[in-house]
Amino acid sequence: MSRRVVRLGGVLALLGAVLAGATSALAAPEEVKVYTDDIAEQGEHALEWQSTFARSPKRENPECTTVNTMAEYAYGWRDDLELGVQLPLARRAGEWRATGLFAEAQYIAPHDADAGAYWGVRAEAGVAAPIDEDKTWHAQLVGIFGWRSGSLNLALNPGFDIPLTGDARDVLFEPAAGVTWHIDKRHALGLEYFVEAGPLKKLLPRNQRSELLFLTADTRIDEVGLHVGVGKAMTDGASRRVFKFIAEFPL
Description:
251 residues; mainly beta; Porin; 12-stranded antiparallel beta barrel; 55% strand; signal; Transporter
């Protein structure tokens, strides 16, 4: 892959082209991301945009494509603590609308940044307000456990989605894992696995779960970080094909 320098305007044009195709949204904000020890440094500001395009599961009829979009602002409060705000968005009749608001905090314990194990925790809480649906309050708790050796970075995220309002109050278990191979300082390839296993008190059988396997690639253009992934359903309950695009801009 070429290391040529591309102006930031080109990156923004690419992002605009991706967003132009977004015409619908999932019922609730959804992240398809494996968390590692990568957080904003103390005093650093960052803006992240994530879009996910998913083809409906095999068992759903008629077939459809859904789009999930979210903007996130993050600030490094300390070297080990990042605070932020997430704003899920939906496009209706050619206009973008906010469909919720979430506050988040991510803590990573002090560790060797070049090799060895690391751990942390991420917490989110807020309201989801999908178009034409009732508002619901949610919290999410995600453990972050990882190990880095040379070019390899392994990460495990046991995640728990906690409904705070509404009729369904079961805590949902949603683990994720990933392995990343860094080709050099700017480029990396990886595999990620995401599971929606159902209520923690009674997990779903595997044929009813949503399980997705992603092939991912990361690069940097100037100071902008880009992450793309193509996902394949591993169970009938998962979206058959998923494409995700994440762009991170330093402020």
